[in-house]
User: Fold this.
Amino acid sequence: MGHFHCYVVLLILAMTTAAQAIWIPLVFRKFHVQIENGLGKETLWAHCKSGDDDLHVRQLGPQGQFNWAFKLNVRGTTLYFCHLWWNGGQHSYESFKASDKLIQGECGGTWCIWQAREDGIYLKHGKGDYKFKYAWDKWPGQP
Assistant:
């Protein structure tokens, strides 16, 4: 096959749809993380950050949420951590990690939607259901 045909085949492959979106290298895609308060009438606090960005402490009232968007760093190693807490407990976790396992396998695309509930922290898979991921850690001295 000549060079021209190879380029045509590559161009066609790049333009075909895969899963839910047109194939775009991960480093050029925009990703989103959303934190939701599903604690009923309780207030949730969230502090999320990466090695480069500190999103500061957020206070989320009942049913409140916040989100942010970003692109992967050039090395493809983008990582965000979140520390969530409320009267019933606290937990720190990786809210986004540049890996196929999290992006496609768990988040189901370019949005990672986390929801805090009374029994723990859940992750929404694509347009499907929320899946339990983490239990709350007790505060020191908490029974």
